[in-house]
Amino acid sequence: MTRLAQTAGLNDVQREILATVRDFVDKEIIPVATGLEHRDEYPTEIVEGLKELGLFGLMIPEEYGGLGESLLTYALCVEEIARGWMSVSGIINTHFIVAYMLKQHGTQEQKDTFLPRMALGEVRGAFSMSEPALGSDVSAISSKGVKDGEEYVLNGQKMWLTNGGTSTLVAVLARSDEGHPEGTAPHKSMTTFLVEKEPGFGEVRPGLTIPGKIDKMGYKGVDTTELIMDDLRIPANRILGGTTGRGFYQMMDGVEVGRVNVAARGCGVAQRAFELGVSYAQQRHTFGKPIAQHQAIQFKLAEMATKVEAAHAMMVNAARKKDSGERNDLEAGMAKYLASEYCKEVVEDAFRIHGGYGFSKEYEIERLYREAPMLLIGEGTAEIQKMIIGRRLLEEYRIQG
User: Fold this and answer.
1) Residue numbers annotated as active site
2) What is d(CA 124, CA 21) in angstroms, rounded to the nearest whole number?
3) What is the rounded distance in angstroms from the CA atom of residue 363 to the CA atom of residue 85?
4) 153 φ, ψ to 5°?
5) Among candidates 153, 172, 145, 176, which has minimal Cα distance to 161?
6) What is the pLDDT of residues 296-325, one digit of tens each?
7) Are strands 208-210 and 285-286 parallel, antiparallel or unpaired?
8) Neighbour count for residue 184 (Cβ, 10 Å)
9) How far apart are CA 388 and CA 386, in angstroms?
10) Beta-ladder partners of 155
11) In angstroms, rounded to a whole number, what is the distance separating the alpha carbons of residues 63 and 120?
12) What Rg, from alpha-carbon coordinates, does the chain have?
């Protein structure tokens, strides 16, 4: 166990889970991650290993076959997995968000139907808010669900689905004007639909098409796709929670914990970048001594380690706040913003320490350098986080009179 990013106050079960995950990462992920990433190959064997460890059900209650662990335990596991390969943590994250939304907002029938199979990894989750022309403006969603008897007919195009091809259950946010008269605020006329589908690409059920994977700069291995709905029929009992008009709030609740996840991913990638940088600095010699003995490199290492510690502390604080049942959008926004920015900076410093070799695909830091930017935009850009933080601070510090 390293000196950095330690978490005080963990119980024996949490420590045992984290030790198991770290061992799995060191033995099963790090040795193969770069090769899989360069081939843009889905990590099937790694995912099967995570299923055996029970990580797909980590936060699902024990009554549904999960481990019933806290958000903090989950976030710390994500941190370890992202340290090995960030794409693997993305596979788990979208699954986890859908399971969390079902646990918090689903009907009893929906929980009984999906959560036990999600805990086993037999059902894989993905969630879908964004659209091609949407960006961060969720209120501008144009995908629509129209009631037709005991069904809803969905039409629209969604974008940036992580696990779009491999998932079998997608939580889709769409506008549903039924029961919400014209002039209703946009966020009050949105509904989350639970869409079951077959894994794969092309037409995965009548009216639903998942085109091929989007080719990305980094964050490879995991499939990122579009989702196209063309008169897709969904039974009314597949509205999350059974009531229309609550989709925006349900999604924001899921995204809030997703932001803790992205912060944890930033922490994990930054930790790995520091490990690579501090190791290389002790092996590479210039002017007759290891570059780690040059003051300029020691200054970089000091700054990198401090950023790793600070990001980890804020991520842990945000997770614990959510676990306590308190509102944590301020803490989650701060953690996501700081961890993603610091991750980018730590990775770049490790890249600089590697010199010309950092530009070579033979070195792991090259992969991290392409992966870190995704965290700057995933689950809300830095600018969105700052808007959330600023508004919440004004609520807390509003002057009277």
Assistant:
1) 379
2) 20
3) 14
4) -105, 120
5) 172
6) 999 999 999 999 999 999 999 999 999 998
7) unpaired
8) 12
9) 5
10) 144
11) 13
12) 22
